[in-house]
Amino acid sequence: MKRRELLKLAGLTAALLTTTAMLAGGAHAQDKKWKIGFSQVTTIEPWRAQFNKDILAEAAKHPEVELIITDGEDKTEKQVADVENLIRQEVDALLVSPKESAGLTGVVQQAIDAKIPVFVLDRNVETNDYTQFVGGDNKLIGRAAGEYAVELLGGKGKAAGNVVEIWGGMGTQPAHDRHDGFHEFTDKEPGIKYLLDQQSGDWKQDQAYNIMATALRNNEKIDLVYGHNDPMAYGAYLAAKDVGREKDIKFIGIDGLPNEGVQLVANGELTATFTYVTPGAEGLRQAIKFLNGEKVEKTITLPTQKITKENAAQILKDNGL
Ligand code: FRU
């Protein structure tokens, strides 16, 4: 091919690529009105993957928004660096879902000091100086789980059994709230015994598997497992299954993603889960609302729902699964 023809072809390709980008993104980055940064803690857990999907789907409805998502790779230091980077990029708003409260507080404060509106999502930080918090009510979810555990173990005033609780990350408020809410109900039952002392699986299935495997070795009788999220409840289930004891035990989790927790309940692997809606879509909507000059509330609480064998199949159907 001659040089001139080659150049022509290159030009055509470039033009085509631009059109595709415009079609896909709605507008060029430089035409966009708002640059919004979202610092996500990790992308490997199923709930986090759904969270990113939700925020991307919402962003696709707003051609005026350029959304930058960073991945903290489940490390505080990496997430701190990500937020510092977003501050340097002078984002118009910062959304952050922290790995843990204490470690992310300083950098959130830096963003606030730089006059960047901050939207804290799902897990909190140790300051109230932010613009808004969006997330589920973990105390309420914990209470619902505790109330159901009491029912499963024989009912109010008569509940009895050995309980394994597997904590989420110790440095996070959701883990503490899920614990406190649960115990508001179960601590009233003298027949309930707790087999572990504050053992954390850091929200991970494999860590929960190991905790449960040890608990099974040390205890002949386990009646109920309360995992602070579905991956951990499922990890515990798998450990019990590996030693043929899964049928003796009830497993309660939290998150209730249709393609994860709800499916596990429908399969009879988990006894129950509670939905913990991701704040992806709502968080972005609120940030845009704020940037457009509207008032936003200090806290937005997302709803929850109990999922058992009774409604799991219907929920799957409603979600096209
Ligand atoms: C994902 C996750 C969810 C849990 C939430 C709590 O990282 O562990 O499973 O519900 O974080 O902040």
Features:
321 residues, alpha/beta, Rossmann fold, 2 domains, six-stranded parallel beta sheet, 11 helices, 47% helix, disordered N terminus, binds beta-D-fructofuranose
Describe the structure concisely.
The chain has eleven helices and 13 strands.
Mind sketching the topology for me?
Blueprint: H1 3-25, E1 34-40, H2 46-59, E2 65-71, H3 76-88, E3 93-96, H4 101-113, E4 118-121, E5 132-136, H5 138-152, E6 160-167, H6 173-186, E7 191-194, E8 199-200, H7 205-218, E9 224-227, H8 230-242, E10 250-252, H9 258-266, E11 273-274, H10 280-291, E12 299-302, E13 306-307, H11 309-318
Parallel strand pairs: 1-2, 1-3, 3-4, 4-5, 5-12, 6-7, 6-8, 6-9, 9-10
Antiparallel strand pairs: 11-13
Helix pairs in contact: 2-10, 3-4, 5-6, 7-8, 9-11
The structure holds beta-D-fructofuranose.
Description:
With 321 residues, the chain is α/β, with parallel strands linked by helices. It folds into two domains: 3-135 and 279-302, Rossmann fold (3-Layer(aba) Sandwich), CATH 3.40.50.2300; 138-276 and 310-318, 3-Layer(aba) Sandwich (Rossmann fold), CATH 3.40.50.2300. Helices cover 47% and strands 17% of the residues. The protein is built from eleven helices and 13 strands. It has helices at 3-25, 46-59, 76-88, 101-113, 138-152, 173-186, 205-218, 230-242, 258-266, 280-291, 309-318, and strands at residues 34-40, 65-71, 93-96, 118-121, 132-136, 160-167, 191-194, 199-200, 224-227, 250-252, 273-274, 299-302, 306-307. The strands form three sheets. The chain has a six-stranded parallel β-sheet with strand order 2-1-3-4-5-12, with helices on both faces. Strands 6, 7, 8, 9 and 10 form a five-stranded parallel β-sheet that branches. Strand 1 (34-40), helix 2 (46-59) and strand 2 (65-71) form a beta-alpha-beta unit. The chain is elongated. Residues 1-26 have low confidence and may be disordered. Beta-D-fructofuranose is lined by residues 45, 47-48, 122-123, 168, 172, 174, 203, 229, 254-255, 276.
